[in-house]
Automatic annotation (TrEMBL):
Protein name per its UniProtKB record: Uncharacterized protein
SUPFAM superfamilies (UniProt xref): PUA domain-like
InterPro entries linked to this entry: PUA-like_sf
Organism superkingdom: Bacteria
Matching Gene3D superfamilies: Sulfate adenylyltransferase
Organism, scientific name: Cellulomonas composti
């Protein structure tokens, strides 16, 4: 899956999108990236938003986002041919709704390559309830 395609191959917003950057700035504390790392030269991952995608279009994408935010959707599957590189445990991604708005930051917890299909298990990282953990 390339960075500008969804699991179903739909084109999604680029990493340069201001909405993705703003969402990433709000979410990055939940994965342990803080302001000091940027000032002293932290890893590029703390500055550049992770790849983004949507689960389809229209009501399909919105329903998937609602399920992810509710915690009832924690896996996704797609054909092996959709991937340039397989996802890895610890990978982050931003899930978009049907309007292309960033709604959820997820982290891969397991990847199963069953030949023709890749199944990725993930956890919701942001938004969550409660305060952002201190990292600085």
């Amino acid at each position: 899956m390339s960075e500008d395609q969804g699991y179903d191959g739909t084109e999604v917003a680029s990493d340069g999108d201001d909405r993705l950057s703003a969402f990433w700035q709000a979410a990055r504390g939940h994965v342990g990236f803080g302001k000091m790392e940027t000032i002293v030269g932290g890893a590029p991952l703390d500055v550049v938003p992770p790849p983004s995608f949507s689960y389809g279009e229209g009501t399909e994408a919105d329903a998937a986002v609602a399920e992810i935010l509710a915690g009832s959707r924690t896996t996704g599957s797609s054909p092996r041919t959709d991937y340039d590189e397989l996802p890895r445990v610890g990978d982050l991604a931003i899930v978009l709704d049907s309007a292309g708005e960033p709604r959820a930051l997820i982290r891969t917890t397991d990847v199963a390559d069953t030949g023709d299909t890749v199944t990725e298990t993930y956890e919701l990282v942001y938004p969550t309830t409660g305060p952002t953990p201190a990292v600085d």
